[in-house]
Hints:
single chain; 135 residues; mainly alpha
Amino acid sequence: xxxxxxxxxxxxxxxxAYGAVSLxxxxxxxxxxxxAATHGSIALxxxxxxxxxxxxxxxxGVNLRGKxxxxxxxxxxxxxxxxxxxxxxxxxxxADNFRxxxxxxxxxxxRTHQGQPSPTLADMARKITEALDAA
Length: 135
């Protein structure tokens, strides 16, 4: 853990990761949002490395209180891009770890249904992936 992140950097990483799970849960509002949130959060809690340490901390300072999915996306999608930019600059291996961790959480959140995820969940997963890759 030679990389030292500021408190704001840690908040950005947690907002991005837990926000991605929140977006998947919100996109599954007609289905099983509590299961999407649970499965996605378990995946985040299973992270290793610096990313795992940051995500394991109490999410103090994280604001995921959007009144709509659009407001939540306005907070989370830029945070995903910012987190990737930050990690690519400071610790490229951790950037890969963060991206994989978030995508596993997104996949876990989408798999709460039998068969394929709904079109809404698939589209939200695509938006999250695009935000991760925009950095």
